[in-house]
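hi!! sorry for the late reply, been swamped w classes. u asked for the two structures so here they r. pasted raw, havent cleaned anything up. first the sequence of the first protein and right below it the tokens
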Amino acid sequence: MTSVSLLGPGDEPIVLGVTTPAAPVRVPTTRRYLMCPPEYFTVEYAINPWMDPTRPIDTGLAVEQWNALKETYERLGHRVELIEPVPGLPDMVFSANSGTVVDGRVLGSRFRAEQRGPEADHFRRWFLANGYKSVVMPERTNEAEGDFTWTGKYLLAGTGFRTDPLAHSEAQEVLGVPVISLQLVDPRYYHLDVALFVLTDDLIAYYPEAFSPGTREVLRRLFPDAVIATAEDAACLGLNAVSDGRNVILPVEATALADQLTRRGFDPVFVDISELRKSGGGPKCCTMELRN
């Protein structure tokens, strides 16, 4: 904010006007996503603090919410590819955890929880069946875009709860991109994609308290203009969001975050993920980006 002033009688300043810098013009880019219908979604085990097998689950509602998310992407001009769900794999809906794709190269996943282990091979076979030539399955535990976030310049790589820190160097070798390690410290935010998301190549939003002190300093240095989320926004998985450079798909409860995004020139697009959140997932968890 700037003002123009002159000196009046007695050298008292006279303010002539106040201007507020206009928000940047944000330009969306068309994306391609891989999603998995939640036909078999339920919560029958607990592998994160959000999951409680004793709580009732409405699979039909989860399907409705997922369909609304898919239709939102398509309405915004994005292309959605589908992988068939598999009985007995209730978390397969969270496709982001099963592959990281950069410039057509695919690094598959290796899950820490044995319940999700079989998902990785179903996605591997989907990639091969759909023309991907460079598909590498990891030796180290990595939960793909759950902990790997591509900015367009760097691969931000989370660790602390799921992904093995040695998987970061493996990702650099397979994908051929610079990797920056980030330490997660709050078990509620066990994956990077529930604590941080990319808005544009040089701008992120994140919740500082989810990270170690050293990681916070790294993020401040790399992204000094970052959007800082509130505790309330983080607690509703508001940072499990998806941006196309202008439109930001995020949970309906993340209102303070949406206000900040609007002031930065973005268009918040709300979706209801209340049923899927019972398993610790949101819009991003349901969405693997295919960067070809």
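now the second protein. again sequence first, tokens right under
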Amino acid sequence: MSATFDTQLPLPTAEQASQVRVPTRRRYLMCAPQYFTVEYSINPWMDPEQPVDTGLALAQWTALKEVYQQLGHTVETITPEPGLPDMVFAANSGTVIDGVVLGSRFRAEQRAAEAEHFRRWFLRNGYRDVVMPTSINEAEGDFTWTGTVLLAGTGFRTDPGAHAEAQEVLGVPVVSLNLVDPRYYHLDTALFVLDDQSDRPQVCYFPGAFSAGSQKVLRRLFPDAVIATEADAACLGLNGVSDGHNVVLPLEATALGGALAERGYQPVYVDISELRKSGGGPKCCTMELRG
């Protein structure tokens, strides 16, 4: 399986062409879906009655990992553990900013053991400032670093108290956002950052996933955001990963890819159909190691 780089893109306007998108090399942590299956349901995407092809999930994950490497990024891996089928969704097990690690504490007991395996990985790999949270905190599932502020989701998984804890541990300003649609149970299913390297970070989000007040906050913070459609969100198109130029998206998110191309970004499409059976996409599989 290979990713698709969209070369049939509309020509940008003169204003858009002047906005040169510059990729930055990233370092990611991923976990192979060796034991992936859907044997319980903790979000609306999961149906234990639906057949799951673990081999296909592994092939899709491998293709995603290879895309990152082809784009020049470094990918670290953690050994998957039997009995933890959702460990592939590495983003939920840590938030790393400037080398400081805030671990996770899962709401669902089925995933609770994942946090300790990731904590040990950080310590084995030279991280010394590792803090495990006291509040329910599903890490980059609900914490999104924009380069200036940490956007923090709540409503279904992460407790509001975890937002204050993240600010204390990571030493960055936090903006709370309330999620209201259970299909978009984590912030990273409804919003992702396109550019975190400038004074004016750019994001993409689906307004319908957020409360009215949170929508107002997002409009105030990001007046030039890319606004996704219901169809974009429904294929987990908002679970994307951007390096400032290349944007990795689910194969079905072509409308969103077109909108991003008009802003000067390069869509890179990957097939995550099997992993989506557990409510995950590219970002869910990808924890960013910053600093």
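hope this helps!! also noticed smth abt the second:
The chain has one domain: 24-288.
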